[in-house]
Design a protein that fits this description.
CATH superfamily of one domain: P-loop containing nucleotide triphosphate hydrolases
Structural class: alpha/beta
CATH topology of one domain: Rossmann fold
Strand order of the largest sheet: 6-9-10-3-11-12
Number of helices: 9
Shape: globular
CATH architecture of one domain: 3-Layer(aba) Sandwich
Bound molecules: adenosine-5'-diphosphate, magnesium ion
Radius of gyration: 18 Å
Helix content: 25-40%
Order of helices and strands: EEEHEEHEEHHEHEHEHEEHH
Amino acid sequence: MLLEVKNLKVSVDGTVILNGLNLSVDRGEVHVLMGPNGAGKSTLVNTIMGHPQYKVEAGTILFDGEDITHAPANERAKAGLFLSFQNPEEVPGVTLESFMRTSRVAVTGKPVKLFAYKKELAEKMKALDMDAEYASRYLNVGFSGGEKKKSEILQMLMEDPKLAILDETDSGLDVDAVRIVSKGVENYKNRDNALLIITHNTKILEALTVDYVHVLMDGRIVRTGDGRLVDEINRNGFQQISAAAV
Ligand SMILES: Nc1ncnc2c1ncn2[C@@H]1O[C@H](COP(=O)(O)OP(=O)(O)O)[C@@H](O)[C@H]1O
Ligand SMILES: [Mg+2]
């Protein structure tokens, strides 16, 4: 298993959000995480990334054979975890390119060969239909919603993690931007890596081969199925799924 979350209990500011959550993701797989607003989807993925605000009260998180339950966030990134945030932050003074280059040095522990790096970056930006000029803009400053999400997808492609987690990266995007996100995800995906997507967008799911769909409610995964579960949710809503699970 690449990621194994066992019996996870997480609290935020003293309130228990997740309780008894189990989730396994293996190499080569695409997983979709769904659930109503406020169910705890972002809480789960931020906890997996090691965000200090989320307190693990019980349970374990194993990644690539290592227990990372209490590992600092930078070690998790080094181990091959990547999270695209639901609301990417603006960082004045730091350009998109220097931000990504700094992350690459931090994650790989090796210096970056500038010419090759710039070439790779230009190719990946082009594939995302991103103006090359964005590389020298301050990270997310003045970016539109769609541009912020594209920049997140670019960071994913440049980092090439073992497990990429996208937290509603496609929300608020127009159809063209959704297509670019789907294409970026396709470019990323291979047999050795994995993807965990949180989305409400059926369009992005149509463009992907989904192996598992999980429904997060009442602090845990109440149902796991294949791609057809998305249709069932769209037809019947989350409440019915949860009622059937009890
Ligand atoms: N930083 C935080 N401080 C206080 N409460 C939070 C925080 N983050 C999340 N919560 C609460 O945890 C619950 C789950 O939120 P979240 O994980 O964002 O859900 P989802 O991503 O599924 O919409 C919500 O009730 C939310 O209000
Ligand atoms: Mg969320």
